[in-house]
Write a structure and sequence with these properties.
The protein is of the alpha+beta class. It has 13 helices and 19 strands. The protein has helices at 7-20, 37-48, 73-79, 84-91, 130-142, 192-196, 260-263, 266-276, 323-344, 350-378, 382-396, 399-409, 412-419, and strands at residues 28-33, 53-56, 70-71, 93-95, 97-102, 108-112, 125-127, 147-150, 154-161, 164-171, 174-185, 201-215, 229-234, 237-244, 247-252, 287-298, 302-303, 306-308, 314-315. The longest helix is centred in the last third of the chain and has 29 residues, at 350-378. Strands 1, 2, 8, 9, 10, 11, 17 and 18 form an eight-stranded mixed β-sheet that branches. It has an eight-stranded mixed β-sheet with strand order 6-5-13-14-15-12-16-19, sandwiched between helices.
């Protein structure tokens, strides 16, 4: 026995070795369903700890769809040791402040993120497309001998049987089965793993359809002191402007009294962009994607040896940019639990601690805040808007109030509360 190895550690090592040699063979210690940023982050964290992982992703490659683009301070802190944060900073835009703005007057409340300087190494938001995070993580995952990534491989069924998780995987060449001790569902809103766990996904779908479009047009040259992240009221509606390298992402919220199809037309999109900055020429729309917004959460993140993370466990309005960040925070907490089980001999019930820490944060912090953000920007009554703007300006004019607000909206407070739960 090595001198540095305790009797307990030796017993754990022998137990794991014996388990591997039993007749009930497994293909890997962990299977991950879903190759988005949450699944890839988990694969990297577990693989870096020497844990054998198989990741199955139904798509042929990293998705380049229009998805999240905002990274909050604690997410950048968590990703920093891997070098991913440095890579993202080189490919994104630092946003030292964000604002809520009244259009076209330009009246605004500006939230200065530098007040978080003593709480984070990254007191700002970073605007960087989600796929850049996925690519950075994938590059690191592929360098790990303990992780196997399978694209174009869709998990179509899953079950736990006799203490082993079994999945059926569909590929272009047919179907096959694979097994593991722990199965993670990071496979999004339509998660097959969540369905296999027999968990309801309670919540609601908001009535409006949002249209996300991108354009090269330089809004910052026409709207005074525009932040890279700006949420705007306009007459009878609202829109948001989020800048990423080389383009602006414009979220247009159509009028609920008109047919959605009509408002998604090229003519309607042009009309909405002309309201933001009137110009003689037409806007060049690079991409567009309509989507519905949901707020939902499962009753438990764990059922036996199956466990959920990210959108498979919780969905929220994108207002405030907390969905992707919350999923990455899930990944770090879950990876810590699994490493404790696989390498330190912790009981499987430590996954309940993961649930106790992350689910309340998703419910009471992420979903609740995003819902409030949405409701505020959907406000139509001018008098109520006036009250909201006055309150926002009161907060931003007082450093202590702004600090408390930004601890919550930047997700620092949620992580701290989670860490305090035992």
């Amino acid at each position: 026995m090595p001198q540095s190895e305790t009797l307990h550690q030796r017993a754990v090592r022998i137990s794991i070795r014996r388990e591997r040699s039993t007749s009930m063979k497994i293909d890997s210690e962990v299977i991950i369903a879903g190759g988005g940023p949450v699944g890839l982050c988990l694969a990297y964290l577990l693989g870096s700890a020497g844990i054998e992982v198989q990741l199955f992703e139904s798509g042929p490659e990293v998705s380049l769809d229009l998805r999240a683009s905002t990274f909050h301070s604690p997410t950048l802190d968590l990703l920093e040791p891997s070098g991913v944060t440095h890579e993202l900073l080189s490919q994104g835009l630092i946003c030292p402040s964000w604002q809520i703005r009244w259009h076209p007057s330009g009246e605004r409340a500006i939230f200065d993120l530098s007040v978080l300087g003593k709480d984070t190494r990254h007191p700002y938001r970073l605007q960087c497309e989600q796929w850049k995070l996925s690519n950075a993580l994938l590059k690191r995952v592929l360098a790990l001998a303990s992780v196997k990534v399978n694209f174009s491989s869709e998990i179509i069924a899953a079950e736990e049987r006799d203490g082993i998780c079994h999945v059926t995987v569909k590929t272009a060449s047919g179907q096959f089965s694979s097994s593991s001790r722990i199965l993670i569902g990071a496979d999004g809103a339509r998660s097959i793993i969540r369905r296999a766990m027999n968990l309801a996904f309670d919540g609601e779908t908001y009535p409006e359809t949002t249209l996300l479009v991108t354009t090269h047009f330089a809004f910052e040259d026409h709207l005074e002191d525009l932040s890279n992240v700006t949420y705007c009221w306009k007459d009878g509606g609202n829109f948001s402007l989020l800048k990423v390298p080389g383009r602006w992402r414009v979220s247009i919220y159509p009028d609920e009294n008109r047919p959605v199809e009509e408002q998604l037309s090229e003519e309607s999109i042009e009309q909405n962009l002309q309201i933001i900055v009137p110009r003689s020429g037409k806007y060049e729309v690079l991409e567009k994607r309509p989507y519905r917004v949901h707020q939902r959460i499962v009753s438990s993140y764990r059922n036996g040896r199956m466990v959920l993370a990210g959108d498979s466990a919780h969905l929220n309005s994108p207002a405030g940019g907390m969905g992707l960040n919350g999923g990455i925070h899930d990944a770090f907490e879950l990876a810590q639990a699994i490493v404790s089980i696989s390498r330190k001999g912790a009981a499987l019930d430590i996954l309940d601690l993961y649930d106790r820490r992350r689910r309340p944060v998703a419910r009471d912090q992420i979903i609740a805040q995003a819902d409030r953000n949405r409701a505020r920007m959907r406000e139509r009554e001018p008098g109520r808007r006036r009250e909201l703007m006055d309150e926002l300006k009161r907060i931003t004019s007082n450093r202590d109030l702004m600090y408390a607000h930004l601890l919550r909206s930047s997700m620092i407070d949620g992580l701290r509360k989670a860490a305090s739960i035992s």
